[in-house]
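Thread: Newbie trying to understand structure tokens

Hi all, I'm a second-year student working on a class project, and my supervisor (Dr. K.) asked me to get a predicted structure for one chain before our next meeting. I've only ever worked with sequences, so writing a 3D structure as a token string is new to me. If someone could post the tokens and maybe explain what I'm looking at, I'd be very grateful. Here's the chain:
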Amino acid sequence: MTDDKRPLPPYRQSLAGTLLAAREAVMGPIRPMLREVGLTDQQWRVLRVLVDQGPVDASTLARAALLYAPTVTRILRDLVARGLVERFTNPADGRRSIIKISPQGRAIVDRTAKRTRVVLDQYAERFGPSRLAALQTELVALAEAIGEGEELLGEE
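---
Reply by user tm_fold:
Sure, no problem. This is what the structure looks like when written as tokens:
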């Protein structure tokens, strides 16, 4: 049973607020590097997923990059136009596309990753490598426990 009269914590102390503050702290030093190569955070995520997973369909790409499908569609239009990704018709289903990073896109990721690795190493040094690994493990567990959240909402 929950206490419906209990006030919410101030936003910066809420789970969403602290997670967002941590994300902004992590991405703050990385964003200027992305801007130098003309990428947004979301475009970077798309390129990183394509490097990690190889060619995928747009739905898989959206899920892996934690983006909505319409956002990925818009991002892909731009990345294809810039020659950073390539789009092919799926031979198994002609109605679907397969997305693949281009050599030019791979070069941008490789070049930018060298610089971001330095920043990520600094985070591990400041926070502690084992604490950082434990935090990442716990955040994955939190995301899995919460899932989409339907089971937490119950029926009204």
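A couple of things are worth pointing out once you decode it. The longest helix spans residues 103-127. Confidence is low (pLDDT under 50) at residues 149-156. Feel free to ask follow-ups in this thread.
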